[in-house]
Design a protein that fits this description.
The protein is mainly α. The chain has a single domain, classed as Nucleotidyltransferases  domain 2 (Four Helix Bundle (Hemerythrin (Met), subunit A), Up-down Bundle). The chain is 70% helix and 4% strand. The chain is built from six helices and two strands; from the N terminus they run H-E-H-H-E-H-H-H. Strands 1-2 form a two-stranded antiparallel ribbon. Helix 1 packs antiparallel against helix 4, helix 3 crosses helix 5 and helix 3 packs parallel to helix 6. The radius of gyration is 15 Å and the shape is globular. The protein starts with a helix and ends with a helix. The mean pLDDT is 92.
């Protein structure tokens, strides 16, 4: 996606400008890294909890990118979906598109969270691969 896509998110009130906050963004990316490390430690014992940690790591890393650039999602329903829209629009230049499976991971997270779906260990391993790349690329870009 392009700068125009980011402008569309602003114009449609999906995200809003705010003061850039690189210090808090750095703290958020550190939390995201710890979530990934924790998920890797527990994935064989509790795949669903590990997946939740990975999803949160990805979401927090994207939020850190937004915060560093002076954006945040608008209030109301769909904040996670808005985060994913921002990711697709703003992170394309990081060349991580093959790993940016935000909507698929969000859907799996929602099924797990709201419909008691047990996440398979192989799904967790695949998610871990994607999330490691996303968190690493965003961390390097901050």
């Amino acid at each position: 996606m392009t700068r125009a896509d980011l402008q569309r998110l602003l114009a449609t009130n999906r995200i809003r400008p705010t003061a850039p906050d690189p210090e808090t963004a750095a703290a958020e990316i550190d939390v995201a890294r710890r979530h990934v490390a924790s998920a890797e430690k527990i994935m064989d014992d509790d795949a669903t909890l590990a997946f939740t940690a990975l999803y949160d790591a990805m979401r927090k890393a994207i939020a850190a990118h937004m915060r560093a650039r002076g954006y945040r999602v608008t209030r109301g329903a769909g904040s996670h979906a808005k985060t994913g829209e921002y990711a697709v629009a703003a992170l394309a230049r990081l060349d991580i598109g093959a790993h940016l499976e935000f909507d698929a991971l969000r859907d799996l997270r929602n099924q797990s969270e709201y419909h008691a779906l047990r996440v398979d260990i192989e799904e967790v391993r695949q998610a871990a691969e994607h999330v490691r790349v996303i968190v690493g690329a965003i961390g390097a870009d901050l």
